[in-house]
Give the backbone structure.
Amino acid sequence: MQIIQGGIVYVDGRFQEGLNLLIEQEKIVDITGEQASSDGNTIDAGGSFVAPGFIDIHTHGCNGADTMDGTVEAIQAMSAFWPAHGTTSFLPTTMTADAQSIQKSISAVFQAMKMPSGADILGINLEGPFLCPRAKGAHMEELIVNPSVPFYESMLPDNMDIVRIVTVAPDAPDAEKLICYLQDNGVVASIGHTTATYEQCQVAFKSGAMHCTHFYNAMSPLKHREPGVVGALLENEDATIELIADLIHVHPAALKLAYRLKDPSHIALITDSTVATGLKDGKYICGGLEVSVQKGSVRLSDGTLAGSILTLDQALRNMTKTGIPMEGCIPMLTETPARVAGAGGYKGRIAKGYDADLVILDKDLVVKGTMVKGIWRYGFQGD
């Protein structure tokens, strides 16, 4: 039995003092205001915040490792890196590539899921290749293909049902057919990298696409006579959106606007992180393209943004600096992404029966300790 006491604990949508968490093996077994038994390993949080572990559903890489490396070692390196930044679960995310390369990455993630070295691996997110070339961002245009069920199936290794999210541009030919297929097979179809009209988004919604890949970025903007993708998603109360809160991809005012118009239960903060995350400025290869990292941004030679070097603990600090309350930020880092990834029944909350995935943050929202399934993956070892 492990006991965490003396913290300000995020339970039922708010931070509360005087609560003790009881953890046995991988699970939270009780949350009580009573004095816990001294039998077991007791951690004193010392007045720090205790929140559910962060969940990143869109991360391409970090610390020199890339999902597109297609190796178990790369995925494990990502897993080992993230707990220092409060992330306890994630979806390694691919870039546009040929079917064989994507299949190789899926296989590597499948194998790594059996033996994570830090943060839990919930599956894989496929950001390509079903994109609109006119909104390709940092994806290789020559490898973008039209949405196709046969092509999608050609990317899947046998008996590896781990795809959780697939980005589909609604303006691409036959997009609705693939979206319906994904919906029928329990995979989240995500609108992204698209110049779709408002009307095309309505077709995508009806087909089952109710999520959005990095909202605002690489999509048709809101105009007063053509609401575009941004307008369609803001209007749709059921659709969830991803936000990159590095204060580079999205202006603080636009972050606040999205927060006001979409409930936190429909926003997932993501990193869209690259291989350069955690490394110094310089040149790197991301998704087969050379990028330059300088002053916090990752860009192609023409200046196009190409992912980020963001971490979720920094995203939290950035959001609170814009004036968004911390209690409103926590669901966007935990409960919402857990639900999108299909893990909402056991991750993303501090509640009885849920995985003991926790992050302890000091008053400056710096990570002091991170627990994944009852194991301290960062901080507090040996306490």
The domain at 54-340 is CATH 3.20.20.140 (TIM Barrel).
